Amino acid sequence: MRISSAVESLRLSLPIMRTPQKDIICFKNGVYELKTQTFRPHNKKDWLLVSNDIDYYPAKENESFETHAPNFAKWLKRASGNQDKAKNILAGLYMILANRYDWQLFLEVTGAGGSGKSVFAEIATMLSGKNNTVIGTMESLEKARDRALVVGYSLIILPDQPRYMGSGAGLKAITGGDEVAIDPKHKQPYSCKIPAVVLVINNEAMRFNEHNGGISRRRVIFHFGKVIPEKERDLNLVSKIEQELPSIVRLLLNEFANPNEAKERLHKQQQSEEATTIKRESDHLVDFCSYFDALNNPNGMLIGNLGITPFNPRKYLYHAYIEYIRNTGLNNPLSLTQFGTSLSYAMNKDGKQYIKKRYTAGNKTNLELNLNASKDWLPKAEEPT
């Protein structure tokens, strides 16, 4: 028999490889079904390729994180610093576990090295399943050819991103549930939705140059601010947490028996003080707006333009913005048009409402410069030359 004939015979006898089952977590001794929250033996029709090599064990009496997942609980306590943030972190992990891409949110974890960010990513991979997790970059989400690499996965991790500044168009489209172009090698291009949760791990928060709220309303920032001293770090922490995975899965599902509670927690995290601080640091317009008080009516500063003389940053909002840019060491200020269209978004991010009304003297706003708060940069403009 010729070799080619033998190969053809094998092709006829082998079943076609199917897509791996997604809503299950593969353990060494079986699989855990997330929908039914039950454990069952392996089935070849699941088409799984990767196991976490851990034996699943049944629920124990009075199961809790502190008692039955002590290593996870220790990490969570250190990473969060308080009970409220700990609940929000659990909500983020639940979102990954349940693959709630339909919430149209993405997680961004920032902090210095040794603060627990990489452990978060490892736990996320355990919960999603190694078979369902892919590593990418912000740039890979922007290009049709590179996006082909993330199709078919339920968790996209963007680890250790270099300093990013851009529109985040690919990230916005994927998390928004839009169809995106896919251009796989040696195959016909097509478009599809990518039903995946996106997790970004950064030392420094990403900087986006779009100011219409498309990114901001999807972005959930967790800042891990406490660096664990070298002598206190447990090099085996991830493997210890992995052994606690059966309990962690059950406890997360019990914690958020009502999934909307997890979603509300994530929205709460978006408005947290730490998230607001990070947004101010990563978006100069949000920071600029923090120096203003919002009045109930548009009786505050005029918007103005650079054609108005004399230059008066106490009277004209755009003059104040230009002076802020000059005296904080920034470059490339927004044009007057960009500034005007972005103000509502930026004020909203600072928790204030922006109102504008046209008068004979020009467009007047409800914003008043807080002279005490702005003294770090405004006086430099007031000093005589």
Automatic annotation (TrEMBL):
Keywords: ATP-binding, Helicase, Hydrolase, Nucleotide-binding. GO terms for molecular function: ATP binding; helicase activity; hydrolase activity. It comes from the Bacteria. Residues 84-237 form the SF3 helicase domain. The keyword Disulfide bond does not apply. Pfam families: D5_N, DUF5906, Pox_D5. PANTHER family: ATP BINDING PROTEIN-RELATED (PTHR35372), SF3 HELICASE DOMAIN-CONTAINING PROTEIN (PTHR35372:SF2). This is DNA primase.
